Amino acid sequence: MSRTHFPVTALGPGTRLGVWVQGCSLACKGCMSQDTWDPDGGVAVEVGDLVALWREAVARGAEGLTVSGGEPLQQAGALREFLAAVHAERDDQDVLVYTGYDEPEFDDNRRNAVEFADVLVTGRFDIRRPTALIWRGSANQRMVVRTELGRRKYARFLDHEPERAPLQVRADESGIWLIGTPRQGGLAGLERGLRASGLPVESASWRLRPPGQSG
Ligand code: SF4
């Protein structure tokens, strides 16, 4: 796992537990989370610990769970186990899973992994296809609603283009961490703004790879 956060308010409706898995081999050019690519990075956690975290978030009012990464479907077995446990004891909380795979790329393992997801956002991040759609990073990414609960909560967001992309900033001992799907140019603008305020960004998860090297 890369990290978790509660409350997340910029990736899905309401207040949510966010879980970012570690490891992604898809290497989309312009990925804002390149720190999650290395499968040997992050920290190992038991599914039971994530379930405990989820219960704690629900006790604090979580309205949903968002799983992102990294690539959640590259840990299909553990993801299924986690989402099955969440499903078994949830009330009205929805589950949103981000994956860089498109549905035609789903094999049985990947399909099983997201059986208990209400909503998927699918497809690689494509830097050439900017979008203003909420909770999507590029125009090719699809928001796939799979359950009645998902329809009830997400129908009005499918074509929603907010004036500004919802973003959260979290600061901890490892640095500043951005949650959300910034619009194209948003990260460069953020860096410029920080620099102008006397806070130059020395390293950023959206430019860890050497300049010019694409995925
Ligand atoms: S955008 Fe998502 S799928 Fe693409 S490289 Fe980054 S973490 Fe992986």
TrEMBL record:
Cofactor(s) the record lists: [4Fe-4S] cluster
Listed GO MF terms: 4 iron, 4 sulfur cluster binding; [formate-C-acetyltransferase]-activating enzyme activity; metal ion binding; ribonucleoside-diphosphate reductase activity, thioredoxin disulfide as acceptor
Keywords noted in UniProt: 4Fe-4S, Iron, Iron-sulfur, Metal-binding, S-adenosyl-L-methionine
Domain of life where this protein originates: Bacteria
Matches recorded under Gene3D superfamilies: Aldolase class I (3.20.20.70)
Pfam families, per the entry: Fer4_12 (PF13353)
InterPro entries assigned: Aldolase_TIM, NrdG, Organic_radical-activating, rSAM, rSAM_sf
Entry protein name: Anaerobic ribonucleoside-triphosphate reductase activating protein
Native species: Saccharothrix variisporea
Record lineage: Bacteria, Bacillati, Actinomycetota, Actinomycetes, Pseudonocardiales
